[in-house]
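User
Here is a favour to ask of a fellow structure person. I am asking you to supply a protein in sequence and structure-token form. Please set it down just below, with no commentary around it:

Assistant
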Amino acid sequence: MWDLDVNCMYVPLNVGKHWISMCVNFVTRSIEVFDCGGLRHPGAVEPFVVLIPRIVKAVQSSKSRQYHVKQYTVSYASMPFLLNKSSSDCGVYALKHIECHLLGLDFSLVNDNNIREARQKIAYDLWEAAIDLVLIERMAKFTPPITISSALVELE
């Protein structure tokens, strides 16, 4: 259940040719945005602010349909000045900001001095997963869960 079993959801988001990430908190009804460039992206974030509460209400069990649709608040995490000078590592920054937030670490740990190693580590982890025989076997046997499908869900 949203805001009971799942407290928050992390979202990497492409904004033009730039990657940012967000933490959607279902308990506090807020969205925290992480952008290594320190910029604001209201056009990209605004749809989440409006739609997420409506989606959460639509997927609630019938017992908790009293959920009130209210827009989420948005805040932008403070970032060090002139981060990501090369501007080609914004995707790595977006993933590392999610990791730092999730683990409660300070964002200053991810900086231009260590982002190259972070990029290489992410690439290696993906490569390692791609050749993992156990993971390949599990993925080959995966069947999606049976879902209850219905016609359109009306969002108020």
Notes: The chain has four helices and four strands. The radius of gyration is 18 Å.
